[in-house]
Amino acid sequence: MLRYGVLALSLALPAAAPAPAADPERGAALFSECSGCHMVGDGARHRVGPHLNGVFGRRAAGLDGYTYSKDMIRAGADGLEWTPETLDAYIANPRALVTRTRMSYRGMKDPAERADLLAFLRGYSASPRDIPEAPPTAEPTLPAALAGVAGDRDYGEYLASECVTCHQADGSDAGIPSIVGWPEEDFKAALHGYRAKLRANQAMQLIAATLGDEEIASLATFFATHAQQPAAP
Amino acid sequence: MQTRRSFLGATAAGAAALAAPAAIGQARPRLVVIGGGAGGATMARYVARDAGGAVDVVLIEPTRTYYTCFFSNLYLGGFRDYDSLGHGYGGLATGGVNVVHDTAAGVDRDARTVRLASGPDIAYDALAVAPGIDFRWDSLPGYGVEHQNAMPHAWKGGSQTQLLKAQLEAMRPGGVFVMIAPPNPYRCPPGPYERVSMAAHLLTQINPTAKIIVLDTKKSFSKQALFSEGWAQHYPGMVDWLPPSITEGVQRIDVAAMTVETGFDSFKADVANVIPAQKAGRIAEAAGLTDDSGFCPIVPATMQSALDENVHVLGDAAIAGDMPKSGFSANSQAKAAAMAVRARLTGSRVFPPRYSNTCWSLIATDDGVKVGARYEATGEKIASVDSFISQTGEDAALRKQTYEESLGWYAGITADMFG
Question: What ipTM, to 2 d.p.?
Answer without folding.
Answer: 0.82
